Amino acid sequence: MNARVERSMQVAPLLAVREVSVTFGGIVALNGVSFELHKSQILGLIGPNGAGKTTLFNCLSRLYQPSRGDILLDGDSILTRPAHRIAEIGIGRTFQNVALFAELSVRDNVRVGAHARSRSDIISDSLRLPWARRGEARLNGKVDEILDYLELGDVAEVTVAGLPFGTQKRVELARALAAEPKILLLDEPAGGLNHEEVVSLGALIRKIRDDLGVTVLLVEHHMGLVMSIADHVVALNFGKKLAEGPPAAVQSNPEVIKAYLGSKEP
Ligand code: ATP
To answer: 73-120: per-residue pLDDT in tens?
Structure first.
């Protein structure tokens, strides 16, 4: 186990999902799901189609309001926060199909992420007040660092729409990291990538965790990616937690195998 994760397991969890339920009309999408995520852990959330992964992800990013239960970040409920404020409390996310500003450059997209945590406001910025200028210089430096770190320096001025999908995914990661999240939520990051791209994405997610100590929760269908990078796996089925534990143990859990066989997924 990663030494940083081992240390963090001895203190209170960073994220606690407590008995969360979500219903849509008569459909119970999540039924009393609980688990914890410790600082610097990489948690993989798996399950066959319709298991409730996206619903849970949407609760964590505040797009859905649970009908029961609570979600605590550093001990405080996130359920009172609107979706547009989650970056401020330290939750960063990427989207399944990439949600960047296609007509803006890579640099400007990452700047948008950095602004989510910047203290400057529109009046100070437009009056070019001294603290706004200092804030701006700091923000530019941070954006440059992140672009270098994710090897996006060469395409910094390129419009996002013209980049390959794999690179766009890296820009999304850069944008999320620019807001300095405590926890990074990744929605099917391997979707649409070829084998080599998935392998390098996995290495990159591990590197981000190892270098920056960022905690990661990923919802992923690509079992190879989950098994190679997650420290802990939570398996859902029909809205309930079916199993959790180290990746190999969850993968060989008979209930999990049965759920996947039943759904005809790999
Ligand atoms: P997949 O892997 O196919 O994306 P999933 O594990 O993400 O599946 P969810 O999308 O969370 O599963 O769906 C859980 C259940 O809730 C399913 O029965 C689904 O049909 C239902 N559901 C999800 N979102 C809605 C919604 N907005 N309105 C009604 N039912 C929904």
So the answer is: 999 999 998 888 888 889 998 877 667 777 889 998 898 877 766 555
Q: Is 80 in the pocket of ligand 1 (CB under 6 A)?
A: no
199: its two tokens: 């392998």
Which of 20, 22, 54, 237 for mutating ligand 1's site (highest number of atoms within 8 Å of CB)? 54
Q: Which of 53, 61, 65, 238 to mutate to test the pocket of ligand 1 (most atoms within 8 A of CB)?
A: 53
In whole angstroms, how far apart are CA 211 and each of 103, 187, 195, 206, 258? Answer: 31, 21, 24, 8, 37
Contact between 131 and 78 (Cβ < 8 Å): no
Listing DSSP states for 45-62 in one string gives EE-STTSSHHHHHHHHTT
What is the pTM (predicted TM-score) of this model? 0.87
